[in-house]
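pasting Multifunctional fusion protein for the record, 989 residues
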Amino acid sequence: MQNKGLIKFFAILFALVSIYQLSFTFVADKVKSDAKTFAAGNPDKELKYLDSISKEKVFNLGFTDFTFNEVTDKQINKGLDLEGGINVILQISVKDILKGLSNNSKNPVFNKSLADATADKQGNKPYLDKFFDAFDANSKGTVKLASPDIFANRSLQGEGGVDFQMTDAQVKKVIKRKVDESVESAFGVLRKRIDKFGVTQPNIQKLGASGQILVELPGAKDVDRIKKLLQSTAQLEFWETYKIEEIGNFLMAANESLKKTEINKVETKEVVKDSLSALLADGKDSAVAKKGNNPLFDKIIAQGGGPVLGLFSPKDTAVVNGYLKRADIKILLAADQRYAKFVWGKLTTIKDAKDKDVDAVELYALKGNRDNVAAMSGGVVTDAHDSFDQFGKPSVSMQMNGQGAKAWEELTAKAYTQKSNIAIVLDNVVYSAPGVSSGPISGGRSEISGSFDVTETKDLANVLRAGKLPAAADIVQSEVVGPSLGQEAIDNGTNSALVGLLLVSLWMMVYYGKAGWYANIALAVNLLFLFGILASLGAVLTLPGIAGIVLTMGTAVDANIIIYERAKEELRDGKSLSEAVVSSYSWTGAMRSIVDANVTHILTGAVLFIFGSGPIKGFATTLLIGIVTSLFTSIFIARIFIDRNIAGKNDLSFVTNFSKNFFTNFHLDFLKYKKWAYGFSAVVVVVSIVSLSTNGLDQGVDFVGGRTFQVRFEKPVQAEVVKEELVKVFGSAEAKVFGSDDQLKITTKYKVQEHGSEADEEVNKLLYDNLKQHYSAGLTYEKFVNAYDGKKLGILQASKVGPTVAEDIKTNAYWAVLGSMAIVFLYLMISFRRWQYSLGAIAAIAHDVIFVLGIYSLCYKFMPFGMEIDQHFIAAILTVIGYSMNDTVIVFDRVREFLDGKIKGSFYEIVNKSINTTMSRTINTSLTMVAVLLIMFLFGGESIRGFIFAMLIGILVGTYSSLFIATPVLVDTISSVDKDLIEKHHLEA
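structre below
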C-alpha cells in the first residue's frame, strides 16, 4: 500500500478530531444529568437550572474552555423520537399574503383563482404556482394581474412594485419576491417568539420555497400552549364596542325571527334571568320566557353587562355564529349598526347554578365599518411586558410609538366622553374591553387585563414584542413525543446496536480468524469516525438514524468480506500471501466491485436524503456517512494491520478450521433453475398485484392525512371497545394494539383539515373525555396530554398530517422510488457498457419491491405489529434497493471479469461459474445483514418494527433475486450473436 505513513497520520488525526467532537456530547449529557438530579422531576426547575448556567464555563481543555451554550451547540443533537418534544411544520398562508398584497381585492377572477388554488390537491406544487395556473385559466387573457383592482394598487406601486404596463410574467416575478419576503418576515417573527420561549436547542428552518417552516422544540412539554404560541398571528386591534342596551333590540328581534326556523332544534333548559331576559318581557308569565322557546337566549349560561352581551358555552359558539351571520338575521340590525361585528372573548371559567366550574366565553358586538377596519391597529405597539394590574392580577402592559400614542389619546377621549368601552382584540378574540373613567390616556401606555395566569401573560407579551405574522400560520404537520418514550427508544436502540455489533464481530472472528479481528478493529474505528462526523456536522440523531448506524455495522464488513474472499481465491491459485493481498486490493481484484456496489448504494441513499424529511433524513444521513467511513476503514485501516502481519509472522490465511472448506467446491447450476425461478416469481408478482388491487395497503397518516395518538393505559384494553367509543365522537377512528395489550395506536381524521390550535385542543379534550373511564381518577387532562419526565400513562406520542402535506409526502415517495431505479439503471449502463446489465438489475429491484409490497398487503391485517405504509416504509424500500444492488453488482462484476478474461467454457458455463465464485461473499453479507436486522426487529422497539421487517424481507428477497432473477434476465437478453462471439473467444482461449 502506497503512502502508508500518510494514511496513518490522517487516520490518527481524524480519530483525535472525532474524540474532540464527541467530548462535547459527553459533557453536555453530564450537565443535563446533573440538572435532572437537581430538579427532582420538576421540568421548570430543570430549565431554570440550565438557563442559569448557560453562560458558565463547564468544559476546560487546558488551552481553552467552553460555556454550556457553546457545548450544547457542538454536541450530537438528539431528534424528538429520542429527546422528546414537539415538532411542527407551519404553513404560512400564501393565500392570505396574496389577499393582503391585493388590498383584499373583490375582483371575481382573482378570488375564484384563490379558491381554485386552495381546492387543487396536486402534491408537491406550491400554492403560488397553483394560483398563477388558476388565474391564467380563469382570466383567459381578459384580466391582467397588473389590473388596478388586483396588484397594481397604491401599496404595491413604486420602485420594485407593480405598475399598469406590466405583463403577467413580470407581475409574477414581483409577487414571488413579495411572498418570499413575507415568509422571511414570518420566519423572523417565529424565531423571536421561540427564542423567548425558553427551550434548549430550538431548531427553526424554512423548507424550500414552499412557504413552510419547520419548528423543533426538544424537551418542550406543554402541547396546547406551544401550538397557541406558534399559530398566533398577533393581529392586535382596538375596537369601539356596543353596550348591551344598544344592541338589545336587535338581539330580541333575532331571537323572535329564529323561532320560525329553530324552535324545534333548541335544547330545553332554564332561561337565565339576566338583563337580556328583562328586555324580553315585562312579566314572569310571558310566553317568551318559557323554557325552550328562545333559540338564541336559551344558549346564554350567565348574564352579561356593559359591552358583554352574555356568556355562552364554548360548544354553542358555532351555532350562535351561524345565527348571527344569516342574511335574514343581519338585516334586522339598525341602519347605524349594519357593520356590527360579533366577536367572542377569551375562554374563562364560571360557576353554574350547582356551583360547579364550567367553561364560558363572552359575546361582544364591535363597531365595524364598511372596510371592516379597527379604530386603531396594534402595529403601533413598540414594547410589551407581563405585569400585574391594580388588583394584583396578571396583565400585559404595552408601550406605543408617537403616532400610536396620539391615536390612543383620541380614542380614549371619545370613549370617556361617550361612556363607552374599547375592546382589545388579539387574533379576533377579545381579551378585555375596559371603559375609560378618568379622561383621555396620554403617553401611549395601555394594559391588557382579563382572566390570565402568569404563563399566559408571558406568552402574550412575547408574541406582541416579536410582532405579528404577515399571514396565518397553520400547523399542517405535527409530532409530539414524550421524554419517557424517547428514553425507551434510546434504550432499545442501544441494546440492538450492542447486540448487533457483538454478533457481527463474533461472526467475522469465527469465519476469518485473525483477518476478522482486523476487520473488527476497522469497524470500531468506523463507528468512532461516524459519530465524530455526525457531531461535527451538527446532525440530528434519530431512532431511524440509530437503525442506520446498526445497519452500517452490517455493511461495514462487506468491503472486508469482498477483499478477503478475493484474497482466498488468489491464495488457492498459488500466489503468495503478499501477492494475494496486493491483487485483492487492486482495481482488477476487489476494488472495482466495491466501488460499483457502493456507488449504487450511495445514489439510493442520496435520493432518500433529498426526498425524505425529519427522522428519515436522519436515517439517510447516517447511512451515507456510514458508507463513506466504512469504505475508508475497510480499505485502509484493516490493510495497515494486514501489511503489518505480512511483514512479521506472515501467517494470515483468511480462514479458520471452521470455515476453511466453506464454498470451496460449490458448483450449483443456477441457470438450470431459471424457469422454476421465473415461474415462482411470476406467481408471487401476480398474487401481490391482485392483493394490492383488492386488499390494498395499510396506509399511514403520512400518506392519507389524519391524527395519530400512541396511548398507554393502566391495564390491558380491548381495541375494538375503544374504537367504538371514539367513533361516536370522532365519526371515524381506528384503534390497534401497539406493542403490549395496554397500549393502543389511535387514528382519526376528525378535523384534520382545521389547522388552528383550537381544533387540536378540542381533539385532545374529546380523546381525554372518552378515554378517562379507563384510568383512575387521578389522571387529569394536563397529565393525559402534556409530556413530562417519567410519564407512563396517557398520550406518549401524537402526530398530525394535513391532507395537502400527505399528498406531498406520497408524491415524494413515488419519485424517490422511481428516481432511484432510474439512477441505478443509468449508472450500471455507463459502468458496464451493456444495457442488459441495467435491465437485469432493474428487473430484480422491481421484483423485490413488488414482493415486499405484496407481503405487506397480504399480512397487515393479522400481523402482531404495525405494517403501515409511511415514510419509514419508503426508507426501507430504498434501502432494500441499495442492498439488492450490492449483491447484483458483485455477481455482474464477476460475470464481466470472466467474460473479459481468458476462462474457458461456454457462455452458460462462464455465467454459472461467476455466480458460484461469489457465493461465499453473497451468503456472508446476507447473513450478517439478516442477523443485524433480526436483532433490531426483536430489540429495536415497536415504533421501527414494521420498518425493520420491510428491510428484513427485502434483504432475503434481494439475495434470491440477484441469483435467480437478475443474472438469468441478463443471460436471456444478450443476443445469440453476442453469445456466439463470446463463446468463440473463450473456447479458443
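The first strand starts at residue 57 and ends at 60.
The chain has five domains: 4-75, 90-201, 236-261+295-468, 482-696+807-988, 706-801.
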